[in-house]
Amino acid sequence: MDQKNENKHSINDLDGTDSSDSGSGINSPDCSDLELALAAKSDEIKNLNDKYLRQAAEFENYKRLAQRDQREQVKFANENVLRELLPVVDNLHRAVTFSKSSGGSNKLVEGVELTLKQFIESLSKFGVKQITSVGEIFDPARHQAVASVEAKDKPEHTVIEEHQPGYLLHDRILRPAMVTVAAAPREEGEHHG
């Protein structure tokens, strides 16, 4: 039995408590210090968690913006090359128009027309489409006014003639259309000058 008591005392000594104590073994001032420390650590954890959530949200926003920028880059990567090809389309249009008006070889005109058609179809595969201008209200984002003409039969600011077609690349202006815009007729008593 002495050995049991010895083991009992040695275990009690390790705990730092004595089984003969009637209390819980924790002093009340130590308890309030632990509660304060626990509350401080809880606040710290809450603040760190909030910081983590904010940074995670910022990273998701950054990732979303980077992906959008990458999609835009891919979508409009050929913009400069396509813009440089538009004068070729214009010249093919002019060649067809001139050949028809001057009575050029039908086979040659036909060949140029087919080439122009194929060229326009190729451009459309890359998202290039022509802007409709004549009859539309003048839009400075889509049209470049090169002249203004008094027109009694057309509403003011209406495009009445297109000198050079404009083009869109997807939803972005590749080149504005060069147009003539209708102006309100001047009154008889108005003088220019």
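Next protein, fold it too.
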Amino acid sequence: MKILMVRVLGCALSVCICIQTAAVMAQNSAPRSSRPFIDAFQSHWATAKGLALAVADAMPAEDYSFKPVPAQMSFGEQMVHIAQANFGYCAFIADTKSPYGEPVKNAKVEKAAAIKDLGGSFDYCSKVFDGLEESKLSQMHGEGKGRFSTMDVMLGVMIHMTHHRGQAEVYLRLKGITPPEYKW
């Protein structure tokens, strides 16, 4: 009986070791990204794009001129500002001039145009991010006090966009509109 129990325990232990070894081997043989930060950032950027576009779409076109107080940008101006900044930050990373022109001051913002520009700004940044190499995230851009690493600018564009999108969500609530739900 003792011998049988030792054999059963030995077999069980062998099976556990085989399963653990197979799991480790599978994990080690899985393809690893040569761009873990950039790939993770791109995933969050795609999520942010979807939410930003959903927020932009949630406001009725006739309320794109809504301002909570006169000193604030209108909802539409917030959307244009996000687009302009996204283009600007990402052009800075690419060491090029932004392809997005300066918006006309005090011009009426049309919803369809704002959404198109907003989506285009996220796509432009994604193309810039696609061309990056992980080893060059510390590469510096700009001059003097306006000198920043690629990673700093990537984080800056995400923070800036999130800040203004958050403001736009408050505008929606002030109009009685529930903002779109964030999905991870």
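About the second fold: The domain at 35-174 is CATH 1.20.120.450 (Four Helix Bundle (Hemerythrin (Met), subunit A)).
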